């Protein structure tokens, strides 16, 4: 049985291995033992309802293979970004210029550094080990976060965002970073990404230029990757699009990867999830559903069949055991 549950303190070693496999450019899952330890501790406190700071809850989930007793992936939510640690983006906009004296009319794209997403809910940390990239597990790992949002809307913002990894090389280096930020940070892309992931964004505020950047002054290689996801991140991007997320011209300061957004209440899984009482436990057959136990502290989701019975639902005993529910308990589910 595969299930998705909150990270635990004893998961640290396995989560560190997953972070190593995720590689560079994934600042929300850094390969740093101390930072991950703090991240896991913060998540445990958030699930218990006692976050380090109210409104800054951080939820980290793991995909658990109960038979193999191992973890196959991670995903997460930051309840509200930018409240104590600035959240920076570049906003791509168009400037129109014209001169009748020389009969020239031009439209130029310009990047402005902004904090427009301050207070938004961010989803991230989505990574799936190669062994578990099957049976739609990546889709379920991505969508499980929306069931929590549907159950506990008061914990989250009306706007939900996700930063998609932009184009960079396997061994570090990014066409966009090398043409913009590197001139000011005086360090490699890999080092800058690591500092951001482990120490925060203060160095961005200290060193990045505040003036607009005309994209036509950048190299063709840098221009070509603005708003383009890393090849390995395209499936994640498509999952977000399927849920109603859209690209509005915001990009990452480092690798120019796209940031997508959606209104929480209009996210497809949020809209189409249902809540009901467990009427009975027995074997049933239907299309696979995500089934959530509706609790915060021991949030657990598994995938299985569900059948309506009166005002309630019927699920299999093994599935009920996996998510910790019994007859009479409430579940939230989505196809």
Q: Can you characterise this structure?
A:
- The protein is an alpha+beta fold.
- It has helices at 12-22, 33-47, 137-151, 175-179, 182-185, 189-199, 202-207, 220-224, 234-242, 268-272, 317-323, and strands at 2-6, 58-65, 70-78, 89-99, 104-114, 121-128, 159-163, 213-214, 246-251, 258-263, 274-281, 289-292, 301-304, 307-309, 312-315, 330-334.
- A hairpin with a 2-residue loop joins strand 14 and strand 15.
- Helix 1 (12-22) crosses helix 2.
- Strands 8-5-4-9-10-7-6-3-2-1-13-12-16-11-15-14 form a 16-stranded mixed sheet, with helices on both faces.
- The protein is 28% helix and 30% strand.
- It has 11 helices and 16 strands.
The residue ranges in which pLDDT falls below 50 over 5 or more consecutive positions are none
What best-fitting shape do the alpha-carbon axes yield? elongated
**What proportion strand?**
25-35%
Q: Report the mean per-residue pLDDT as an integer.
A: 94
Q: What summary fits the major beta sheet? A: 16 strands, mixed
In total, the number of strands is 16
Using only C-alpha atoms, the radius of gyration works out to 22 Å
User: Could you state the order of secondary-structure elements as H and E?
Assistant: EHHEEEEEHEHHHHEHHEEHEEEEEHE
State the helix count. 11
Which class do the helix and strand fractions yield? alpha+beta
Supply database-style keywords.
alpha+beta
Q: How is the secondary structure organized here?
A:
Elements (H helix, E strand, L loop, with lengths): L1 E5 L5 H11 L10 H15 L10 E8 L4 E9 L10 E11 L4 E11 L6 E8 L8 H15 L7 E5 L11 H5 L2 H4 L3 H11 L2 H6 L5 E2 L5 H5 L9 H9 L3 E6 L6 E6 L4 H5 L1 E8 L7 E4 L8 E4 L2 E3 L2 E4 L1 H7 L6 E5 L1
Parallel strand pairs: 6-7, 11-15
Antiparallel strand pairs: 1-2, 1-13, 2-3, 3-6, 4-5, 4-9, 5-8, 7-10, 9-10, 11-16, 12-13, 12-16, 14-15
Helix pairs in contact: 1-2
